[in-house]
Specification:
By secondary structure, the chain is α/β, with parallel strands linked by helices. The protein has one domain: Rossmann fold (3-Layer(aba) Sandwich), CATH 3.40.50.150. Strands 3-2-1-4-5-7-6 form a 7-stranded mixed β-sheet, with helices on both faces. The chain is globular, with a radius of gyration of 18 Å. The site of S-adenosylmethionine has 18 residues, from loops.
Length: 243
């Protein structure tokens, strides 16, 4: 009999009581939801066990969570029921490359470590579909592992002495410095960057202590200007005096 983990590399990570990646949503996405919010349909691509899905659903978006891990999607269903936001969550077990994207209608797309889990040529195709799917006030949040990651077989990551993630073998496409930003500023992407960072992150959400090299992008449709103050907010308005 085949074990679930032989067909799903993330089965064991999502089967734990202490589910991998935890329940804290991606920080820049959380800041966007708190400051800007919105309503409508959002795709969470490679949603995993749903930490971003749940935050989006609780903010009022209707979320379609897509992943190839049925165990991850089962945990999303459980968590959304516990959190009372299940009416806003739909799960689809599919490869992101097989997903039909609507044109110009999505309020947002979240891709937290998805574009790096598929080969580079496929990631470019999915990226174009994502960009074309966004409506005029839509947002995109994307995170990818970069060549700074200690699990990468290229420098500088391969020369790092930082510890490697237990799930590093699932990353097949490490982004070069500036690559995600370059994709975002291409005119055909139709995006405006709100915030972009390349950084080292220490991860305590699963397995032994380890580090990542990451690029993190928050963007909106070009021409859209939401009330975004940055993450963390740089110059927030002072509270208004009580009348
Ligand atoms: C590092 S996890 C991130 C999960 C989630 N986005 C988060 O940040 O908590 C990567 C996820 O990508 C999923 N994945 C990998 N390749 C995929 C593909 N081709 N289509 C859909 N999901 C995929 C895996 O099953 C896994 O859940």
């Amino acid at each position: 009999m085949t074990s679930p983990s032989s067909t799903d590399p993330f089965y064991e990570a999502y089967d734990r009581d202490d589910v991998a990646y935890g329940m804290t949503a991606s920080a820049m996405l959380s800041a966007y939801l708190n400051q800007v919010g919105g309503e409508g349909d959002v795709y969470d691509l490679a949603a995993g066990a749903g930490r971003d899905t749940i935050a989006l659903a609780k903010s009022g978006f209707r979320v379609t969570a897509i992943d190839i891990s049925q165990r991850g999607l089962d945990r999303i269903a459980e968590r959304s029921a516990t959190d009372g936001c299940h009416e806003n969550v739909n799960v689809i077990c599919s490869d992101v490359r097989d997903v039909d994207f609507p044109t110009g209608t999505l309020a947002g797309v979240v891709a937290t470590t998805m574009l790096d889990h598929i080969p580079s040529a496929d990631a470019a195709v999915v990226w174009d579909r994502i960009c074309q799917s966004l409506r005029s006030d839509g947002f995109l949040y994307a995170e990818v592992h970069t060549t700074e990651d200690p699990g990468c077989d290229q420098p500088p990551g391969c020369d790092s002495s930082r510890p490697v993630s237990e799930t590093a073998s699932a990353v097949v496409n490490y982004f070069r410095p500036n690559q995600l930003a370059q994709w975002a500023v291409r005119p055909e992407s139709g995006l405006r960057i709100l915030q972009y960072a390349e950084r080292i992150e220490w991860d305590y959400t699963h397995g032994p202590e380890h580090a990542h090299g990451k690029a993190v992008l928050l963007a909106v449709r070009d021409g859209h200007h939401p009330d975004w103050l940055g993450q963390p907010p740089a110059f927030p308005r002072r509270p208004r005096p009580q009348a």
